[in-house]
Design goal:
Elements lengths: L1 H17 L6 H32 L14 E4 L4 E4 L4 E2 L5 E2 L3 H4 L4 E5 L4 E5 L3 E2 L5 E2 L4 H5 L4
Length: 145
């Protein structure tokens, strides 16, 4: 269980890190490796769960139970979807926010396209980093030249 939590934390880190990057060859390679690791881990866990499930007559979930090619772990009654990069939610049906769109390219966003928070870069403020922060006259006069 600790390994699963650590792995999910790693996936969340990668998701946040790459939501602000343009895909390139390295990112594609890493995404493919992450997908491979997630798939292998999911298959191993599902095999163990299937053994337990068969004892209780419960049907294991499949990737069809998750949207956007997510991997499913558990049973139809108690499922857990591991989402691909760029997706979130119980069924992987929500897109992660895009800082270029939700934060006007002036900050980092956390959350989904429907519910997000922007952490604005220096010089910007507002819910979507849409406002310029103006320096006060006092700060302007205290600049060191």
């Amino acid at each position: 269980m600790k390994t699963s939590i650590l792995f999910l934390t790693f996936i969340i880190f990668l998701t946040i890190k790459w939501t602000s990057c343009e895909p390139d060859e390295i990112t594609k390679e890493i995404n493919n490796e992450v997908k491979k690791i997630v798939t292998e881990a999911g298959e191993k866990v599902n095999k163990e769960i299937s053994q337990k499930v068969n004892e209780n007559n419960q049907e294991p979930c499949t990737s069809d139970d998750c949207s956007n090619n997510g991997s499913c772990i558990g049973t139809k009654q108690q499922k857990f979807c591991i989402c691909n990069l760029g997706f979130a939610g119980d069924n992987c049906s929500e897109r992660l926010c895009d800082p270029a769109i939700q934060c006007n390219g002036r900050g980092i966003c956390f959350g989904t396209t429907k519910k997000f928070t922007c952490m604005c870069g220096l010089g910007f403020t507002g819910e979507a980093c849409e406002k310029n922060v103006k320096m006060s006259d006092e700060k302007e006069n205290n600049k060191i030249n």
